[in-house]
Amino acid sequence: MAESVGKHFVASHFFRLAFESQAEPIRKLRMELRRYLLRHGYLSEQKEWREVAAKYGLLNLESNTH
C-alpha cells in the first residue's frame, strides 16, 4: 500500500510540475492525466488530485465516469 501511495504522490507532482512549467504538448498531458484518474478512480476524491485536475480543465471527470 505504501508503494502505491508513493507512486501516486510522485505522479501528482509530475502532472503539477508539467503544467506549471508549460510542458508541451499540453493536450497529451491532459489525456494522460485523465486516463490516470480514470484508472485510479478513488484519487479524484483527494484534494490534491482535484486541484491538479482543475489546472488541466478536468473538473467534470466524475460525471464522465458514470
Q: Would you mind describing this structure in some detail?
A:
The structure is a single chain. This protein has one domain. Helix content is 70%, strand content 0%. It has four helices and no strands. The protein has helices spanning 2-20, 26-39, 47-55, 61-64. The longest helix is centred in the N-terminal third of the chain and has 19 residues, at 2-20. The model is unreliable at 61-66 (pLDDT under 50).
Kindly summarize this structure in a few lines.
The protein is mainly alpha-helical. The chain has helices at residues 2-20, 26-39, 47-55, 61-64. The protein is globular.
**Total strands:** 0
Number of helices: 4
Element-level helix/strand string? HHHH
User: Uncertain spans, ≥5 residues at pLDDT below 50?
Assistant: 61-66
Ends distance: 27 Å
Major pleated sheet: none
Helix content: 55-70%
Which term fits the overall shape?
globular
> Structural class of the helices, strands and pairings?
mainly alpha
Strand content range: under 5%
Roughly what is the average pLDDT, rounded to an integer?
A: 87
